[in-house]
Amino acid sequence: MNDFTMRINGLVDSLLSDYQGGRSIDEIKRFGHPEKKTVIDILEKLRRLIYPGYFKNESYRTYTIRNNTTMLLEDVIYNLIKQIKVVLPYKEELSGADEAALTAEAERITFKFLEKIPKIREYIETDLQAAYDGDPAAYSKDEIIFSYPGLYAILTSRIAHELFLLGVPLIPRMMTEHAHSRTGIDIHPGVTLGKYFFIDHGTGIVIGETTVIGNNVKVYQGVTLGALSTRGGQSLKNKKRHPTIEDNVTIYSGASILGGETIVGHDAVIGGNAFITSSVPAGARVSIKTQELLYSFGKSKPVKKSEFENADNWFYVI
Predict the structure, then answer these.
(1) CA-based nearest residue to 110, from 15, 58, 46
(2) Are 121 and 233 in a shared domain?
(3) Which of 109, 113, 208, 275 is 20 to 30 A distant from 303 in Cα terms?
(4) Model pLDDT for residues 31-50, shown as the tens digit of each residue
């Protein structure tokens, strides 16, 4: 045995010894883990089912929409059952279930989820319309479907939310975090979204698990719909920690709305960079006073600029 091989064996022995530490990172689960690549592939195939004429399926050479839909659906069913079966033992009541019970439950959940596809398509059509109506930079709905990160994040959230409601562990969060990595938009799968939801630009948006959003809501980049405090840690699980946003609300860039008891009433407008921790009445316009600007010209005394302080439209400009 040469020196190089001995060094490798020494490293292996060191790692195997370190794995015996009894820590969370040392655990080798008997039921394995979901495959991230497969979960993302399922998500992309579901997107093709939802937009049947937009994303070419390179895997199948078919000539009818029925054949193509059947093949896509069979592919999704097979892989989704397999991935759900892998994660079901994370649920306490199924941690000791046998193979047959896990398979039966995975099949039940998969078909229950797929029955929700028409509902998801109904809602995403309204989101597409909201994006087109709300953005003068949009020249066609095709442009929005192919290129808008907000719509991609919303669709992923709607898919993941249905799996979340069915009690599927891990997989919904994997889907929304994939969208997060692609778009910079972080929507927890537990979030409840109404119809006609529009995210413009989107980068830096965070929407927490127990947020409830009504119909015709518009949100711009950098908005946080979060918890007022998470110091309670796991003791806060399953409690309403995030705000409720009622119908016809617009939230401009950089605003933070925090707290499970915080309700933004219908038809309210929240200006950019506002920091809100208590409820906002219906129809209110909330903005922060514009900071005073200082203009310096060479060695001359700085000139104070405060004409913007009383402006009523500054936060409408994106």
Answers:
(1) 46
(2) no
(3) 275
(4) 578 999 999 999 999 999 99
* CATH code for the domain in which residue 214 is found: 2.160.10.10
Q: For residue 202, what are the contacts with CB-CB under 8 A and spacing of at least 6?
A: 149, 150, 153, 183, 184, 185, 221
Q: Kindly report, residue by residue over 201-225, the tens digit of the pLDDT.
A: 999 999 999 999 999 999 999 999 9
Sign of the CA dihedral with 50 first, then 116, 204, and 188 last: negative
Q: Is residue 67 part of a domain?
A: yes
CB 242 within 8 A of CB 209: yes
- Structurally, how many domains does the chain consist of? 2
Is residue 25 assigned to a domain? no
In the numeric block, which tokens belong to residue 61?
A: 């050479």
